[in-house]
Amino acid sequence: MERIGFIGLGIMGQPMAHNIMQAGYPLVVYNRSRPAMEILGAAGATLAESPKAIAEQSDVMITCVSDSPDVEAVVLGSNGLIKGVQSGMLYIDMSTIAPATSRQIYTALQAKGVDALDAPVSGGDIGAQQGTLSIMVGGEAAAFQRALPILQTMGKNIVHVGDAGAGQVTKACNQIVVALTVQAVAEALTLAKKSGVDPAKVREALLGGFAQSRVLDVHGQRMLDGNFQPGFKLNLFRKDINIVLQTLRELQLPLFGTSQVPALMDALLAQGKGDLDYISLVTLYESLTGLE
């Protein structure tokens, strides 16, 4: 089996890397904070001291870090992956970053004879733990086929969307749909509550019609329960929306619903809710309408 190097062992990366190892792949890991590495080390992973060392010990390199500058540092930095790669290797970035950054990294690695895929994910920490993530992939078809058995240890809905950067464009589209659907569900439940109608019954009724969605099903219930523990933290979601807005500016594309999202997120951040899930948006509406 191919040797896998994994960088970024946060709320998503830790279970994703664990699932790769559980599938039998030899795993080498690196993370800025050592305790996260030691958890996987205790389960049998090899610990590396730098991204460069990861490249030197792997056939396939995977990153799952926070933002575009982090991926650039890990791949292109002075002690980055690119310093240890050899021709014929494969790089898979499962972070959510700007499409333009994915294309830049793709070009840099291609010059070294290394194939590169951008493969951001959706499904939150539960999907990462259960190996049921949706994975959106950009890059060459041959590289995708090589990566597919590895990706199947982490996800169930795995789609090769197109060329380099296409996976990140798809993730931007995903975040638009999720953000606006969370907003719609929060507003609907607020309307029900303000009208004196049981919001739990409203949700139950809506699940039987065209308003049905996974957000209404899972997050709607969590809103009713007041459970805002993060499957994906608001401050990271805000970062993703920045990527969406950057892409819209590059394309000179006006998307009016999406343009409302940052202000709502910023209002929650101003209330100190950055470490909660974005579904805590419902509390903002309740506050504005006197329902708290």
CATH class group of the largest domain: Alpha Beta
Percent helix range:
40-55%
Tell me the CATH superfamily of the largest domain.
NAD(P)-binding Rossmann-like Domain
Number of helix segments?
13
SSE-based structural type: alpha/beta
Main β-sheet, spatial strand arrangement: 3-2-1-4-5-6
- How much of the residues is beta strand, in percent? 5-15%
Residue ranges: pLDDT <50 for 5 or more in a row?
none
Question: Can you write the helix and strand succession as a string?
Answer: EHEHEHEHEHEEHEHEHHHHHH
Largest sheet, strands/sense/barrel: 6 strands, parallel
The strand count comes to 9
Question: Looking at CATH, which topology of the largest domain would you report?
Answer: Rossmann fold
Shape: elongated
The N- and C-terminal alpha carbons lie at a distance of 55 Å
Name the average pLDDT.
96
Radius of gyration: 20 Å
Which architecture name of the largest domain does CATH use?
A: 3-Layer(aba) Sandwich
Indicate how many domains the architecture comprises.
2
